[in-house]
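Teaching assistant's notes for section 4

Start the section by putting this record on the projector. Ask students to predict, before seeing the second block, whether Endoglucanase will look compact or extended. Collect guesses on the board.
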Amino acid sequence: MRSLPPRLLAATLLATLTAASVHAPAAAADYERVLNGTFESGSADPWWSGAGVTNRVTGGELCAAVTGGTTNPWDALIGQNGVPFETGQSYTFSFDARATTAQPVTAAAGESVSPYRGIASQQFAVSPEKQRFSFTFTSTLDFPDAGNGQVAFQLGGQPSDNTICVDNVSVVGGVKPPGGVNPNPAKKVQVDLVAYVPGLPKRATLVSGATTPQTWTLKNSAGVAVASGQSTPKGADATSGDSTHLIDFSSFDTPGTGYTLSVGEDTSFPFDISADPVKRLRYDSLAFFYHQRSGTPIEAQYVGDEYARPAAHLNVAPNQGDNNVPCRADLACGYTLDVRGGWYDAGDHGKYVVNGGIATWQLLNAYERASRLGDATAYRDGSMNIPEKANGVPDLLDEARWEVDFLLKMQAPDGMAHHKVHDANWTALPTRPELDDQPRRLSATSTAATLNLAAVAAQASRLWKSIDATYSSTLLAAARKAYAAAKANPAKLADPNDGTGGGAYSDDTVTDEFYWAASELYATTGDAAYRTDVTGSSHYKAASLNRGGFHWGGTAPLGDITLALAPNGLPAADVSAIKSAFASVADQHLTAMAGMGYAAPYDNSTAGYVWGSNSTVLNNAQVLALAFDFTGTAKYRDGVFEALHYVLGRNPLSTSYVAGYGDQAMVNAHHRFWAHQNDPALPIAPPGSLSGGPNSALQDPVAQRLLTGCPQQKCWVDDIGAYSVNEVAINWNSALAWVSGWAAEKSGTPTTPKSDCEVNFSAGRWNDGLSAQVKITNTGTAAWTSWKLGFALPGTQRVTSGWSATWSQTGRDVTATSMSWNGELKPGRTVQIGFNGSGSGADPTVFTVNGKTCKTV
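Reveal the predicted structure now:
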């Protein structure tokens, strides 16, 4: 519901409707005003229910269970807000209806907010036999472009409980608005609404049909001109429908706030020149995941009073809970699982292994990549505002573990993983998680879900090896069991029709998941069997990497990223080929971006802009970022920031798709708790939440009503009901978190504390052998009473003997533990140790002491 929750609708609203009824004989026009009147999707959105009424979509009908004993017909309501009406226009209100027990039902149209004026209503006798009802009226009120118009059914005033079902609800007539018009105001000078980083390119887009260069002026917050120049005409941009010019103001590099760009009388939204916002975004994008936690209270000390809520889905009434969840009735699996915890996937209360898999992998990969190639101290213990921020474990790993543990719980006794768990039926919008009264059900196990579990558990095992060896072993055992189960069930696909109460997430190709899981297991264990599966895959050496990017249903490039980052025994030429593929695809992105009016690494050549397009932009930005990591070539770094500029406002809608960032940012995400648009008592989307973005398929009724005929990049609206364009999801925010974390690292001097340890490694080598010297320095401020060094040996290298420490090796992971005589190490002091070994390979590049990443010198 759009404006006010149904419990606030006064009797005066619907009591006045009957008196306003007009029976006009004229036929109404064919413009449909009601959204989701056929309920074919299985969802009730955006229909709401009042007190004492529970909505369910069953068999393609919206069935309202009504509690008896009310006095007036308007004491029990179902309805829909945001219905547009124009004064003086004719409308026909039609619907099918039936009732378990015959009773009168009133259909009404009117105003959803005070003073609750009525337009028209009519009472009908509804019986157990489904009938078609219809009446025509002329509107006496004006609610164009949705506004505060409403349709509703009065179901109360009966002594006993009853169930009334409606279907094919339709209100047609009125003036059809022009299609493809986004109600959000757009500027003609499009900028990143947040900030441009000093030292990096600064580009904007001018919307202009002029064929000659236009003069632009950059002004500071006082309105004083500080730079000017000429735009470069680019002409028609088919994806946005705009004629565009490029404005490049990179030569101006003075940090500050409140800058604007002007061309003639047109001025941009304000923006900063600063690295601070992208560094803030790194943590706000990660805070999204704490907000989405299930099975635990979201506490005000971490999110503020506005976003705090009780724990949900713990079998505390009215929840039916995740403590003891059975399979769907048609599956009869014979067991229940305790699947408490994890993250709610999106705007509903479902939890999905395939979305959870890629989202968790992306967070863990952000940490692993920073540990090996960047600055992992940004994710140190205490860096994030979460309950685990003082437990000695990097906070990013703590947050990821919340979902890793849930993935483990989704593993069935036979080693397979259940595809998802969610409500038996879709819940209404809004529904706070702790007020969800739906029973919870496990969907069937699937090969794709099982391989997601195998991949993430193997990856996590590698990262927890030096932090919690017992947990690491548990993870690896689960990963091995899942991979073996998937090989025994290689084609158990998710049911594409399993879409009631939660998305189906079907995937008819799982060779990519096999490659990804085998890559993670091989990188963690070095086992020959996994290596054979990796090198024998059709996806090997980034064969599937292209401009289309990766996503939950196309995961092969995740395996490539791991093989390129983590030390392993693959031939150096093969690893080099993987890295070269990333640079090659990055070059393709940059070539395409050079011709765009609004530069974004996105390929719309086959499917247009799709559901979650912003996540694809950011996943492709990750490809650009890794190309920079692998080559050091600046153009790839610049491409990453261009992608962020697009997401943060340099787009044809002048909109930041990240909540809380920019003067015109997404507010009304499709979410059952962040639902302020529907209920003023609930919050808006919290800062750092990413909207799915433009979707030219327009797969929800709100988008269809407002945006039909839209150019691809303009197929978006900031409306809670527009779920196909404005939903949020964990695997979209994980992309934002990865990219913003990388960008923050590349945005100047890090603000996080320096490492408190330093390692110098040097080795002499001969054919199939080496002798290594390792110097460890305590660069912190506290003395060590003991120390434990960890690193991975690339290639086939094995420790055969060592000195001045207790040495051990598992796979490629090596540990060296202090002796009784050299464990105490005061600040500034150094200890030297060493080992002899066999095999060949490069020097290790990442070292930890007592679980913390050290500076390598």
